[in-house]
Write a structure and sequence with these properties.
TesB_ACOT8-like_N, HotDog_dom_sf, globular, Thioesterase family protein, ACOT8-like_C
């Protein structure tokens, strides 16, 4: 999965202690090489949920990430605990810290998988096929004026079918990670979804970032089934109103069809001049 022309082999390198990680340059977001994109952060929290007291026959159906402040590209620690135990429904919480200071918290519902006899419902149109855009896919993903594109953005492969980063939304893209989340580990379906989901605010934004300060405070990902395959498709749009705030909504799909939803709450303010 790793690309020979990318300087990192994974988003995170595990350290000697359980739950301790060194962040690589691949985690850096579009605003600064020193602070992380929330996609890897969310995926690392999702990994903690998957590994915490695993219960066969259950799945993580919803993850909500609370972003407490900029997450540095540095050493981090992630811990998880059970808040509400149950045989069929369990509430989990996780915390990410840097030098003892919390930088992000997350919660997740882990629930029993639905019986195989359940008749599936399909109320969303089938996604368009994965396009073969050739080298144009990477060109369009990095053509974001003023953005740091050599971290997370370069660590993902993008194939846009509508809009692009830095262009007025809504937008749609097929994407996959080029490197593992944690060095030496396969990327799980949940981790794939979480790696991509936080990009909704950049993909679907219709606000001029030179004029407006836009900060997402959280990320909620709800999956009615687990993703299959490396490629995921996301369609995203932004809603904002004077006297209110911003809200990004997105759909997630794979080649088999619809699989979940993404929501992000946004602070919208005038940019400093």
């Amino acid at each position: 999965m790793a690309s020979a022309d990318f300087p990192a082999n994974a988003f995170y390198e595990p350290l000697g202690e359980d739950g301790a990680f060194a962040s690589t340059v691949a985690t850096a977001g579009p605003w600064s090489p020193d602070f992380q994109h929330a996609g890897p952060v969310a995926a690392l929290m999702g990994r903690a949920f998957e590994r915490h007291e695993p219960a066969p026959g259950t799945r993580v159906a919803r993850v909500t990430l609370e972003i407490l402040g900029p997450v540095p590209v540095a050493e981090l620690r992630v811990t998880a605990r059970t808040v509400r135990p149950g045989r069929r429904i369990t509430l989990l919480e996780a915390e990410m810290t840097h030098e003892g200071r919390p930088v992000a918290r997350a919660s997740a519902w882990r629930i029993a998988a639905a019986p195989a006899a359940l008749e599936p419902t399909a109320n969303a149109p089938a996604p368009p096929p994965l396009p073969d855009l050739g080298p144009d896919a990477r060109t369009r993903s990095t053509a974001w004026s003023g953005a740091h594109v050599d971290g997370y953005i370069a660590a993902m492969e993008w194939r846009f079918t509508e809009g692009s980063f830095g262009r007025p939304g809504p937008g749609a893209v097929w994407a996959r990670t080029r490197i593992p989340l944690v060095a030496g580990e396969a990327v799980s379906p949940l981790q794939r979804a979480l790696l991509l989901a936080d990009s909704a605010s950049g993909l679907g934004s219709e606000l001029d970032f030179a004029k407006w300060l836009v900060i997402n405070t959280d990320l909620t990902v709800a999956l009615h089934r687990d993703p299959s395959g490396e490629w995921l498709r996301m369609w995203a749009a932004l809603h904002a109103d004077p006297g209110g705030s911003g809200l990004v909504e997105a759909t997630l799909a794979d080649r088999d069809g619809d699989l979940g939803r993404v929501l992000q709450t946004l602070l919208v303010d005038e940019a400093a001049t």
